[in-house]
Design brief:
By secondary structure, this protein is an alpha+beta fold. It has one domain: 2-Layer Sandwich (Beta-Lactamase), CATH 3.30.450. It is about 35% helix and about 20% strand. It has 8 helices and 11 strands. An 8-stranded antiparallel beta sheet has the order 1-2-3-5-4-6-7-8. A 3-stranded antiparallel beta sheet has the order 10-9-11. The protein starts with a helix and ends in a 14-residue tail after the last helix. It catalyses: an alkylmercury + H(+) = an alkane + Hg(2+). This is Alkylmercury lyase. Cleaves the carbon-mercury bond of organomercurials such as phenylmercuric acetate. One product is Hg(2+), which is subsequently detoxified by the mercuric reductase. It is an enzyme of class 4 (lyase).
Length: about 220
Amino acid sequence: MKNEIQEIVTRLDQHSNKGEGGESMKWLFRPLLQMLAGGESVTVEDIATVTGKPVEEVKKVLQSLPSVELDEQARVVGYGLTLIPTPHHFTVDGKQLYAWCALDTLIFPTLINRSVQIESLCHGTGKSIRLTVEPDRVVSVEPSSAVVSIVTPDDMSMVRSAFCNEVHFFSSPSEARDWLNQHPEGKVLSIEDAFELGTLMGKSLEESGPSNGSCCDI
């Protein structure tokens, strides 16, 4: 399974580098998540200050992201982690946030370095699924049989529609059968394997070397 997980990471990484955000995600994504985790909208100036990038460069990157969510004042309210309700409830430090997809909920605790409570729904039955996830491990899963669906689309130019909208929780592998029949190229992973996948994906988003600096660490 470890080889399969690494293959998924490699495939997603290859296509994401050519897709939405491209290389800019390496300096933008994690700091933006950390700011959104505070439970408030994020200004362009906030992003520029934290990342050390010019305001105009930040504006240009945000304008290039078709999936980014902005409010009426052009502040960021969502990009993976969002203030706008979705089926994936993501509670951090008592603040109610949301995530675009099931895998996001497993990636983000590591990237924001926080313990998180997650509540979502089985895509097949609508039954509740609850998890507690820390930066380095999954603490609890109810039901324990829950799984996550994964796709590896060739075109990641619009990450939310291409990837996130097909990455769901299911209460068990059997509940995911219909989805697998409709998505023969897809896979279903246990929560532990999905967490490992998410951890590896998160690492691939980070720049190495001193230029990353403390701006990407809480």
